Amino acid sequence: MATKIIWSDHARHDLDTIFLSLLDFSESYAQEWIKKVFSNLELLETFPEMGRMVPEKEVRFLREVIVWKYRVLYTYLNQEITVIRIVHSSRPLGKI
């Protein structure tokens, strides 16, 4: 059974904001970054636990994959992946 991927509103906003910010810097860099995000998500459909557990939270179902300087945070429960946030790796997570 294929794993379903859902985007939270926060994650969609993060994706758009980061992409537009990178676009100001370099169109090719922004395009490569977003391709990398989606290629990682495609891998998650097959290997949903490939991301590491988020060290600050130590919750088994909360995981992350790193795409360059950004952490793509997701939960994996009941054959469903929910992308919950995308944050720069230099920033503290705080509440998610």
Task: Please provide a written account of the structure.
The structure is a single chain. By secondary structure, this protein is of the alpha+beta class. It has one domain: YaeB-like fold (2-Layer Sandwich). It has two helices and five strands, in the order E-H-H-E-E-E-E. The chain is globular and about 40 Å long. 20% of the residues are buried.
Keywords, please?
alpha+beta; YaeB-like fold; single chain; about 100 residues; about 40% helix
At a glance:
The protein has 96 residues and is an alpha+beta fold. The protein contains 2 helices and 5 strands; from the N terminus they run βααββββ.
The CATH class, by name, is Alpha Beta
Largest sheet: 5 strands, mixed
Decide which structural class fits the backbone.
alpha+beta
As a percent range, the share of helical residues equals 25-40%
Strand order of the largest sheet: 1-5-4-3-2
Strand percentage: 25-35%
> Please, what is the CATH homologous superfamily?
RelE-like
Which segments are poorly predicted (pLDDT under 50) over 5 or more consecutive residues? Answer: none
Order of helices and strands: EHHEEEE
**In CATH terms, what is the architecture?**
2-Layer Sandwich
- Mean model confidence by pLDDT: 92
In DSSP terms, counting alpha (H) and pi (I) runs of 4 or more, how many helices? 2
Which radius of gyration do the C-alpha atoms yield?
13 Å
Number of strands: 5
